Amino acid sequence: MSEYLSNFWDVIWTVFLIFAFVAYFMILISVITDLFRDRALNGWYKALWVIFLVFLPYLAALVYLIARGRGMAERQHEAALRSQEAANAYIREAAGSASGPASEIQHAKSLLDSGVISAEEFARLKAKALA
User: For residue 124, what are the domain limits?
Assistant: First the structure.
């Protein structure tokens, strides 16, 4: 029975170590991403942080999160906003560029109103769009 308990605690310890490694790896990726996202930080300071992260990994990650956590959150928020704006612009462009009959007729009507085309040309374009 003692052997089973020993194996059980070995498994629990291994699971804890794997969890700690994965958590640190996620924090490391977040910190390095934030370092290179920050345009205000000098390149030498970025290199110093990376060296600090390599040689004292847990301490460096903890110090970084404490010292620069608020700016990290702000930069992540700004990046998310830029990404959302880019996606919205793409969706508007894709939706607006659809050339259906209604948009073709609307375009022809604006040409007719501005005097670029005649009423006969508008009727022809309208019939073509509806066909």
Answer: 99-131
Shared-domain flag, residues 38 and 22: yes
Q: Are residues 91 and 110 in the same domain?
A: no
DSSP symbols for 29-93: HHHHHHHHH-SSS-HHHHHHHHHHHHHSHHHHHHHHHHHHHHHHHHHHHHHHHHHHHHHHHHHHH
The answer to which of 2-6, 32-36, 104-108 has the lowest mean pLDDT is 2-6
Residue 122 near residue 109 (C-beta atoms within 8 A): yes
Tell me the pTM: 0.57
Residues 87 and 25 in one domain: yes
For the purposes of burial, counting CB atoms within 10 Å of the CB of 112, is it exposed (0-12), middle (13-18) or buried (19 or more)? middle
Number of domains, the chain? 2
